[in-house]
Amino acid sequence: MNFEIKYAFFYLYLMFIERREFQNFLSKLNLEQHKSHKLRLRDVLDIRSESLKNGAPQTLEDLPWHFLRKVMALNGTARNTSLLKVASEDQGTNEDEEDMDIDDIFTVLDTDLRDSLNPLDVLCAILVCSNSFLQQQILSKMSMCQFALPLLLPALHTSKCTLMLWAMRDIVKKWRPHSLAESRGFREESLVLTKMPTISFVRMGSCSFSKSQLLNELLSPSQQHHDFFIHRDMESGNIPREIADGLVEISWYFPRGKENSDIFPEAIAVTNLRGDIESHWLQFHFLTEISSAVFIITESISEKEYTFLSFLKESTAKYYFVLKANAGKHSETLEFLNKLAPILKLNRPQLLVKDSTSNKTSAIAAIMNSSPKIVNIETMAETAQELGMQVDEDDKECESASQSAKEITTQIKDVAEYKNKNLRLQGEPWKNLAEVEKEMCQMRTQGDTPIEEYKNQLEIKLLELRVQQKRYGLTDGLNTFIKGIDQP
Ligand SMILES: *[C@@H]1O[C@H](CO)[C@@H](O)[C@H](O)[C@H]1NC(C)=O
Ligand SMILES: *[C@@H]1O[C@H](CO)[C@@H](O)[C@H](O)[C@H]1NC(C)=O
Ligand SMILES: *[C@@H]1O[C@H](CO)[C@@H](O)[C@H](O)[C@H]1NC(C)=O
């Protein structure tokens, strides 16, 4: 058998194993039926007996609902997947154990070993089981909680990973870049359209310190630590991931216009790949294409890693290595870094030590001063497509919704004029109606008219206005709108 065919079989085999793991994971959360029947916003907002018990989750099946309800309420504890331990008397009596077949025993062992699930796994499962409109809600609320957002979802139910463009469409951010400081100006823009430098953080090999913790330190304003990214010292953050490896998360830094406390003068995006780059080549390749700089966090570089990184010789991104000072095999690592230096165009300042946050902050400041690559999420989506990944907007539902929205918005040249022409009930007639209704309560200009007669006059006026309103038929804009929301 030639190499390619062998590789293809191996790949299919891996996919099969991964699918089965994903399936098992969904059944732990009792979400299996939602793989095809997606969860809708309505399902989350439904008030049921379970939604009223606001307490901590007690079983694995509670975890998705706990997350969804808390994140909808903008509660910062949404990602806490710890289970509340309840002492149960009736579980585990001898009688029960005798009745168990071997499968049950394994399930019990499995849940005994791990008290809960990694929050990133739960998040990935929820997103795969949600329709595109619920995904948009979840990401908007997560953004308000200042949680990092999933940018690339691993290939769990699809053959390639998916870029979450549509899911972020609703998010708008406001910030004060230092370049507008003189005019005291600010920018308020749609997040997916805003162009800014992107810096990526990835791990190579195993590493004894937490990359996400390092990122949180980097992005947190002084004395206000915030966990943008889940990290291993957080509640449940140390539980091994089952399905979320290969997830790329993204977070942003937005300056508040305070020269002495802002960490960076302009907005930047920071991405974080979960898992090792060697097992996630596609995601890593994507990040090298969109990023101005890639920070590779590692403890040792040997022949294998050297060969892997040599493939990047055409890459235009700038590479930084974050090392632990004097970790084991330090001299071998330095030797291979020296060999990599001409290939990746490395300079001395591109070797950073793990313990110094200021080290990384000044490196990023230097990147921002050196005319970095400026991209927005729409551009990232194009890159993703070129690399054969999926973009959530390619979904039929999103496409038709976006088509309907475009049909309406292309007609809008002047907002005020468009409103006058297309929303005819709302403008002048509505204002007049409101005034008459107000007068019916306040009776300000009644004068000498007897009260019943005055009321009668007003009622006639109201009726006339209603008749006038009814004469307007449905406008083209409204027809398109109704057709659009009627479709799905
Ligand atoms: C996480 O949830 C557990 C169980 O409900 C609770 O005991 C713990 O205090 C929570 N941790 C945080 C940081 O909120
Ligand atoms: C967030 O949820 C936790 C855990 O259920 C609760 O103790 C806390 O009061 C909530 N916070 C707010 C602001 O509602
Ligand atoms: C990072 O720290 C090291 C040692 O403390 C120093 O030699 C290097 O210049 C620093 N790099 C940057 C970019 O600040």
Write a structural description:
With 488 residues, the chain is α/β, with parallel strands linked by helices. It has two domains: 361 residues, P-loop containing nucleotide triphosphate hydrolases (Rossmann fold); 91 residues, no CATH class. The protein is 45% helix and 12% strand. The chain has 19 helices and twelve strands. The strands form two sheets. Strands 1, 2, 5, 6, 7, 8, 9, 10, 11 and 12 form a ten-stranded mixed beta sheet that branches. α11 packs parallel to α12, α15 runs antiparallel to α19 and α17 packs antiparallel against α18. One 2-acetamido-2-deoxy-beta-D-glucopyranose binds next to loops. This is Up-regulator of cell proliferation-like domain-containing protein. Pfam families: URGCP (PF25496). It comes from Pelusios castaneus.
